[in-house]
Amino acid sequence: MKEAEDSKTGTPLSTGEGQGVRRKKTSFADDVNEWISLDKVLEYLPFILFLAVLGMFYTGSRLHAEKQIRNASAIEKELKKKQWEYNSTKSELMYSSMQSVVASKLEINGLKELVRPPKKIVTEEK
Question: What radius of gyration, in Å, describes the C-alpha atoms of the chain?
Fold first, then answer.
């Protein structure tokens, strides 16, 4: 009696006692179709939808947080700019209100700083 051979490899198929018939090789696609059937998909559909909604909330939350961080960064930059402007204006005002600067500006208009203290005028009431 002639032994059966595998058509692809030419190796004999074992049909001895106790070994049983050799199982046919299946492809990966066949295995996947076996694991994922329509019944299993319908059974797990609510969970899959829950995970999808959860993923969308997670993505939306992350995008919102990134937007808030960008806004906070822009506000911090604007605050630093305003602080610099405040300090610059404050120092200019302090410089321009110094007595020597005011005296030099008034000298241009012909006004001079008093050398002696002002006199107090006293009147007697009757």
Answer: 47
pTM above 0.70, yes or no: no
pLDDT in tens, 7-58: 666 665 555 555 555 666 678 877 777 778 888 888 999 999 999 999 999 9
**How far is it, in rounded angstroms, from Cα 64 to Cα 50?**
21
Q: Annotate 94-117 with DSSP letters as a single string.
A: HHHTSHHHHHHHHHHTT----SSP
Gap between the Cα atoms of 52 and 88, Å rounded: 54
Q: Name the H helices within the chain.
A: 28-35, 38-96, 99-108
Give residue-wise pLDDT tens across range 68-102. Answer: 999 999 999 999 999 999 999 999 999 999 988 88
What angle, rounded to 10 degrees, do the helices at 99-108 and 38-96 form? 60
Structure tokens given for 12: 């004999």
| Amino acid sitting at position 59 | T
Tokens of 19: 């070994």
